[in-house]
Amino acid sequence: MNGIGEKEIETTPDFCPKVHKPGFHCLENNCKHHSYTYAPYEIAYADKNGLVPDSDCWIGFGGDMEPEDYNEEKITNLKKLWRDVCKAKIEEAYEEFMQKADLKNK
């Protein structure tokens, strides 16, 4: 396990899960080898450990979602639209799961 630009660490800290991937446990234990970044306007699926398994499990506002003609007001409105779409899709995913799992009437 090593950080960017660091030499490999000989031993993995005891609190590091068997996945040997950075995650909440690094922050929780104030690991000197951790780093993090902010993820504004992101939506993701996290596994049983609270980790996002791979790049197919998250998406964020940006890139081709932004208009070519940069306009702060338009970007602000698009971010609000992204928020609304994400929230609706979360609700839609819940409803679909409940229906497919035959848990709707509980």
Quick take:
The protein is mainly alpha-helical.
Describe the structure.
This protein is mostly helical. The chain has a domain at 58-100. It contains two helices and two strands, in the order αββα. The chain has helices at residues 24-28, 72-100; strands at residues 42-44, 58-60. A two-stranded antiparallel ribbon has the order 1-2. It is flat and about 50 Å long. The mean pLDDT is 83.
Features:
single chain, 106 residues, mainly alpha, two-stranded antiparallel sheet, 2 strands
- The number of E-state strands comes to 2
Mean pLDDT: 83
Portion in beta strands: 5-15%
Shape designation? flat
The biggest beta sheet reads: 2 strands, antiparallel
Give the helices and strands, then pairings.
Blueprint: H1 24-28, E1 42-44, E2 58-60, H2 72-100
Antiparallel strand pairs: 1-2
